Amino acid sequence: MTKAETAYELVRDQVLRGDLLPGAVIPQAALARELGVSTTPLREALRRLMTEGLVELDAHRDARVTRLTLEEARDLIEVRRSLDPLAAGLAAERRTREDLALIRQTADELRPLRTDPGPAELLTHRRFHVAIYTASHNQLLIQSLDSLWDKADRYRRLALEDGRTESDLDRTHSEHRALVDAIAAGDSATATTVMLAHVEASLGARAVAQLTSAAAEPAARSLRGIRGGRA
Predict the structure, then answer these.
(1) Is 134 exposed, middle or buried (0-12, 13-18, 19+ CB in 10 A)?
(2) Where are its TM segments located (predicted)?
(3) What's the pLDDT tens digit per position in 28-65?
């Protein structure tokens, strides 16, 4: 790997892990020293991260981590409602013996996501879903879902800040097992239906609800103030 590629992987990991917070200015000189590279490969890495929507660069060469927004969270869920069920349905139709073995293996490795999960915990869930959409054998679909997953991890972390109930964890586990069973049985319709329900109840969907509530609160306070002034 080149220095720019190394810097890209390390900075991207810090952004997705939450070490570099949404909206935070990236201290380029200090970060370059920490990574053991000059600012030139770091800038190259930041430009690459900008194309992925994880970093913003301005005309003054300042860089900051892209903020979490209701619009992006909603966009991600809207696209996933279409693509994830499509991938699951195709996986049920097209999976090979090797695909199914990997899906079962990654399902067995899944660990519940609770508050502030580590990279390894998030990776178990990604590997499971990657195994499913890779089994679709549709390269455009695989590439699209890979890109969506990169951006969605930050919203999953936001949703996990409020914690999860045991019923949430049980439902997610049941959905994972139902997906494995449907794909193994070659039942495309059931795999599609279960995956749609899984997306609708996902951490990404919870993030949309949280951001919608946060956006509505200032307006509600303003309205209460107007009513109070009229009293």
Answers:
(1) buried
(2) none
(3) 999 999 989 999 999 999 999 998 889 998 866 789 99
State the Cα–Cα distance between residues 142 and 123, nearest whole angstrom. Answer: 17
Per-residue b or e along 147-184, where b marks 16 or more CB atoms closer than 10 Å to that residue's CB: ebbbbbbbbbbbbbeeebeeebeeebeebbebbbebbe
Dist CA 49 CA 54 (whole Å)? 5
The architecture in CATH of the region 3-65 reads Orthogonal Bundle (1.10)
Tokens representing residue 220 in the block: 């509600």
| 131 contacts: CB under 8 Å, gap ≥ 6 | 99, 102, 103, 105, 106
Q: Write out the DSSP string of 57-103.
A: E-TTS-EEEPPP-HHHHHHHHHHHHHHHHHHHHHHHHH--HHHHHHH
**pLDDT: which is higher, 91 or 59:** 91
Spans of all domains in the chain: 3-65, 70-214
Report CA 118 to chain centroid distance, whole Å. Answer: 14
Instruction: Say what the pTM is.
Output: 0.81
* Architecture of the 70-214 domain: Up-down Bundle (1.20)
Residue 117 and residue 20: Cα distance in Å, rounded? 15
- C-alpha span between 95 and 183 (Å, rounded): 8
